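### Sample
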Amino acid sequence: MDGVGVTADGFGLRGPRGWAFRDVAVDAEPGSLIAIEGPSGSGRTSLLLALTGRMKAGEGTATVGGARLPKQLTAVRRIAALAHVPGVTDLEPALTVGEHLRERALLQRRFGGSLRDLLRPRAVRTAEAELRIGAALDAAGLDREALPKGSRTAVRDLERVEALRLSVALALVGRPRLLGVDDVDLKLTQAEQAEVWALLGSLAEAGTTVLAVCAEAPEGAVTVTTGADAVPSGERPAGPGDDRRAGPRVEQRPGPQDDRRAGPEDEQRAGPHGGQEAGAAAEAGPDAAPEVRPEKEEESDALTETRRA
C-alpha cells in the first residue's frame, strides 16, 4: 500500500482549559516514519488523532495525502487507521486473538468495502478475509502458531509487545495508507522498544506512512516535538522558579471587576479572617497568576469530546 505525505503549518487544537498542542509544523514524504515526541500530557495523542482525522484542529492547516485538515476529516479517516490508542482501540482481554481478527475482518467487509463486495459469494468473501488477515499478521510480525494457545490465546495472556503487534495487525486489515500508533515505548524495555521501532520502520519501508507517539524519537525518524519547547514563547509563564509541567499555558484574561479593591461588604462576607485574604487577592489585581490545571486533563477533555461527537 502506498503511503501519503503529511504536512502541517501552524497546526493547533484548543480544548476547554487551554491548548492541547499549538504551532505544529510537519513536512514528511510518503512512506515516512514520523515520531511525535514529547512527555506525557503534552498533547501527543491529540496531535496523532488530529492528523488521522479523528479530532478537529482549530488553528492552522494540514494536508494528508491531498486532503486538507480540518475541513476534510472524512477523507483522511478513509485512508488512516489507528493502533494501540488507549480508549479508542483497546483490545478486549477476555477475547482471543482469533476472535479479534475475525471481528475486524467482518467490520472491514461491512463498512470498508463496496456494495459489490457484499454481494460476492460467501466462500469468496471468506477467502478474501483470510488473505487480509494473513497479510496483516505477516506485516505486524505476529505468528499465531508461536502463541501459547495459537489463535485461541486470550489477549490477557499476551506479552506487551505481542499485544501491540496484534493491535497493529488489526489496523492493517483495512490496508491503510497512514497508520497511527500511540505510546509505542510505554512500559517497554530498551530491547522491546528497539523491536517495536524495527517493526514500524519495516512498515514505513514497505510504503505505509507511520505516525508514532513516543517519549524519545529514534534516529532517522521525522521528529515532531510537543510540549513546552514547541509552544511560542508568549504562551509560557516566565520566571526561573516556575514549577510547571511541560505543555502550553491556559490563558486567562482579567475580568472587568478584577481591579476593584475589597470593601467593608467584602470583609463582612469573608468573616473575621477572610478580610485580609480578600484584600490581598484584590491588591494582586489582574496580574495574579491563575490556577493552571495539568495539560493531561486538557488532552483528556479534548479526547472525551471527540468520542462523544
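The chain has one domain: 6-233+299-308. This sample (ABC transporter domain-containing protein) is used throughout the tutorial notebook.
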